[in-house]
């Protein structure tokens, strides 16, 4: 139904920055939520940030507040994640996520690797 493609991952030193981008294609509901999750080796997938299409309401994991910023462009069906002051514990595969407000089905991108290391 909805295809998500991420880009922007890579290797960065602690304190550095990266910007992740996600483009959605297919049948996009007017009312939806998009965001980013991440999964580190040996850990469960966790929410990083989300944003709603209706009002642009954002939600951030406590661990990234003040460092990460999520944004979206409804006309382009894109969502970005600006990551600043990166820490080694931010190392993970980051997944783009989409869900229509009136549908419980989750849609996931293939993921992009972010590695924070000296």
Structure description:
With 118 residues, the protein is mainly beta. 0% of the residues lie in helices and 54% in strands. Strands 2, 4, 5, 6, 9, 10 and 11 form a seven-stranded mixed sheet that branches. A four-stranded antiparallel sheet has the order 1-3-8-7, with no helix packed on it. The protein is globular, with a radius of gyration of 14 Å.
Helicity, as a percent range: under 10%
Biggest sheet details: 7 strands, mixed
Task: Give the end-to-end Cα distance, rounded to a whole number of Å.
Answer: 40 Å
* Percentage of residues in DSSP E strands: over 45%
Please identify the oligomeric state.
single chain
SSE topology:
Layout: E1 2-7, E2 10-12, E3 18-26, E4 32-39, E5 46-52, E6 58-60, E7 68-73, E8 78-83, E9 92-100, E10 107-108, E11 112-116
Parallel strand pairs: 2-11
Antiparallel strand pairs: 1-3, 3-8, 4-5, 4-9, 5-6, 7-8, 9-10, 9-11
